[in-house]
Amino acid sequence: MIEFFGYLGALLIGVFLGLIGGGGSILAVPILAYLFSINEKSATAYSLFVVGVSALLGGIKQHFKGYVDWRTAIVFGVPAIIGVTIVRYYVVPILPNTLFYINDFQFTRRMAMFGLFAALMIPAAISMLKNKKERKVKGGVKYNYPLIFIEGIIVGAVTGLIGAGGGFLIIPALVILANVKMKVAVGTSLIIIAFKSLLGFFLGDALIMEIDWQFLLTFSTLSLVGIFIGSYIGNFIDGKKLKIGFGYFILVMAVFIFYMEFFIK
Length: 265
Known about the structure:
By secondary structure, this protein is mainly alpha-helical. The protein has one domain. It has helices at residues 2-20, 28-35, 40-64, 70-91, 109-129, 145-162, 167-178, 182-208, 213-233, 239-264; strands at 98-102, 105-108. Strands 1-2 form a two-stranded antiparallel ribbon. Helix 3 (40-64) crosses helix 9 (213-233), helix 4 (70-91) crosses helix 6 and helix 4 runs parallel beside helix 8. It is globular, with a radius of gyration of 18 Å. It starts with a helix and ends with a helix.
């Protein structure tokens, strides 16, 4: 029964992605961890694959609408890919089960990874709750290369640790550091998320971890089916109101993860 709800959750990930254009993949880690009882290393690895595949589909759709700047995607994407690959291949495997003790309190690797994930769910939720006004962009695309490289490495490293795409970090960076229009930033961010997540998974986890491909492909397929369902339902539902509701749901999920990791366990 719990697995049934887990697969239903996989479908809902796609439905939310199809309805509001983002955010749904942030549910992948808690679904994998709490409904399928997958450990933190595998949950974040599998999430990278699910996030990458979903973002790739969304990015291709945005490309055909003319909302993807491929040069910007490469400039931002390369350092992000470097960051996520280093973390998944070199850092995560050597993290000990227990990172440190505070008196009798044992701070574990799972607490660190899921705690960071829950902490970053809060600004992600806030970005959904805000009524964003598109920033007026003057002139063409301009690159602040040093800051872009640093930001890319950081976003890639965070993605590697928590298994989420980090679109709420990438989109503002594209607008501020590269002078990209908001609609183009959203489409381009999907391509960046897709490539850094998938390459991080295949160049990191897939080389050093045993992957349950049958489960992962089933989970991912359900998410993709959900995207098409969500896109269709979106024709009849106010996406802005739904996005606000989903933002509050993400906040509740963040509190739930903190409670499960730091109080229950």
